[in-house]
Amino acid sequence: MTGDESAVSAESETAPRVTVLTGSPTEVELAAAHAVISAVLAEQHERGVERVEPPIDQWSSRAHALRQPLAPGPGAWAASRRMRG
């Protein structure tokens, strides 16, 4: 491997990947979007802002499995009223 190849492979490992899902942007539009995103990330890094993780999807959360099972039947509503205090 030559020096040029190692520099390119090292750069490609650290460069963020961008995937275009819809549309067909030009190279100029992609470069502009990349410049804006890079500038925002660099500014956040300088200020020490931590990366914000997306919120947990409550539909896929396992916490709902910890809930007590429902017991429908005669007197169930009365029992729930007594639990409230």
From TrEMBL:
<dbReference type="Pfam" id="PF13822">
    <property type="entry name" value="ACC_epsilon"/>
</dbReference>
<dbReference type="InterPro" id="IPR032716">
    <property type="entry name" value="ACC_epsilon"/>
</dbReference>
<protein>
    <submittedName>
        <fullName>Acyl-CoA carboxylase subunit epsilon</fullName>
    </submittedName>
</protein>
<dbReference type="GO" id="GO:0004658">
    <property type="term" value="F:propionyl-CoA carboxylase activity"/>
</dbReference>
<dbReference type="GO" id="GO:0003989">
    <property type="term" value="F:acetyl-CoA carboxylase activity"/>
</dbReference>
